[in-house]
Amino acid sequence: MKEFAVREDARRNHARILAVAQAEVAAHGATASLEQIARTAGVGSATVRRHFPTRRALLEAVSHERIETLRLRAQDLAAAPDPRPALLSWLADLLDYSLTARGLAPALAEGTDPVQASGCAAVLGEAVNPLLAKAIGAGAVTAEVTVTDLITLVVGIVMAVEHRADPVAEATRLLGIAVAGLSPPTRT
Amino acid sequence: MKEFAVREDARRNHARILAVAQAEVAAHGATASLEQIARTAGVGSATVRRHFPTRRALLEAVSHERIETLRLRAQDLAAAPDPRPALLSWLADLLDYSLTARGLAPALAEGTDPVQASGCAAVLGEAVNPLLAKAIGAGAVTAEVTVTDLITLVVGIVMAVEHRADPVAEATRLLGIAVAGLSPPTRT
Question: Looking at residue A187, what is its pLDDT?
Fold first, then answer.
């Protein structure tokens, strides 16, 4: 029983450190303080290092966890009654993730886009496909569009604005334009 | 008179080499053959080198010439009777240029986007502004969109697709989606 309790304790620490790390990385990017993460999680620095031996290991775990969150979110949203706002909400989440992930990219790899690289786009595309299909089926999104189109547009927008003064505002604005198109709204 | 004739000859050679180089670079990218350029232009390799001492100098001149062409094209299109197709045609030209220019970027600089870098975006933005204003004035484009939005969208799309098997087709498709928006076309 003691061994089980130790393992259970370690599992809980791991989850808590990861949750805190996600928030810290979202706020401060790849340079988030490991000491601050340990303090907020209520564990010692040695415990953080036992679970995540290097900063890179921690950042990879955070990145993986956020992709998993996006995947589950797409599944939840597929049950929403109105598929178009559900799809747009997911794209906004993907945009947020990509903006942070681009910041992590230099710490994790050679500047390649972390969504398009390493199969993330495939995983996310598969996850959001039912939601897009539902929106198309409801006549709320043009049948021409694929999940690859949507993910590529978000990735491109994020890449194009990452050196701007306010990437989040710029990217959100551009995604809004791409979603609405260039034509003026028709008056009814 | 002899001195004038020599200068006139040099000017014509310069223009001819540059025109041939544009076509070769468009077809083969930054690795276009300088020997082939000399042959097609009907001059010797030494003449090419006198006008463009290094490959980099030639590529810079080609890039500058193409920006200038885009600038003049925007001016011409501002006089077109129907501003929306004129604007879309210019965006397609910008997309073509950006796709080639991305290929030139590693040869010219440190992977920065050649349209957004070095004031190109500002020059092009100023050039296309009257055309966009006319399209907005005619109610053919939403008043919310700025030239910076359009250029940034094109740049982002090009960055996102540059490693795909067919970047031109992908980029054209994504620009079409961004122009049309995600809603299905309204039936009339």
Answer: 57
**At B59, is the pLDDT very low, low, confident or very high (cuts 50, 70, 90)?**
confident
Q: Is the pLDDT of residue A169 over 60?
A: yes
Q: Among partner residues A178, A184, A185, which is closest to B153 by beta-carbon distance?
A: A178
CB of B169 closer than 8 Å to CB of B157: no
Model confidence band, residue B104 (pLDDT cutoffs 50, 70, 90): low
Cα gap A187→A89, rounded to integer Å: 25
Measured between alpha carbons, how far is A37 from A17 in angstroms, rounded to an integer?
A: 7
- CB contact under 8 Å between A178 and B177, yes or no, is yes
Interface TM-score (ipTM) > 0.85: no
Rounded to whole angstroms, the Cα distance separating A157 from B156 reads 5
The DSSP code for A119 is G
| Residues A72-113 pLDDT 10s | 999 999 999 999 999 999 999 999 888 887 766 666 554 566
* Beta-carbon contacts below 8 Å between A and B: 102
Task: Mention every residue, 6+ apart, whose C-beta is less than 8 A from residue A169.
Answer: none
Q: What is the pTM of this model?
A: 0.83
pLDDT digits 0-9 by tens, B109-157: 545 666 665 577 888 899 999 999 999 999 999 999 999 999 999 989 9
Q: Tell me the mean pLDDT in the region B88-107.
A: 82
Neighbouring C-beta atoms of residue A52, cutoff 10 Å? 21
Residue corresponding to tokens 């890039």:
B63
What's the count of helices (H) and strands (E) in chain A, helices before strands? 8, 0
Considering only CB atoms, A177 lies closest to which of B145, B155, B185, namely B145
- Which of B153, B185, B157 is closest to B171 using CA atoms? B157
| A139-to-A115, A136, A177, A181 alpha-carbon distances in Å | 28, 5, 20, 17
User: Does A173 sit within 8 Å of B149, measured CB to CB?
Assistant: yes
Euclidean distance between CA atoms A65 and A85, whole angstroms: 24
Largest separation between any pair of C-alpha atoms in chain A: 69
Nearest CA in chain A to B174: A149
Q: Are the Cβ atoms of B184 and A143 closer than 8 angstroms?
A: yes
Cα separation, B46 vs B138, in Å, equals 53
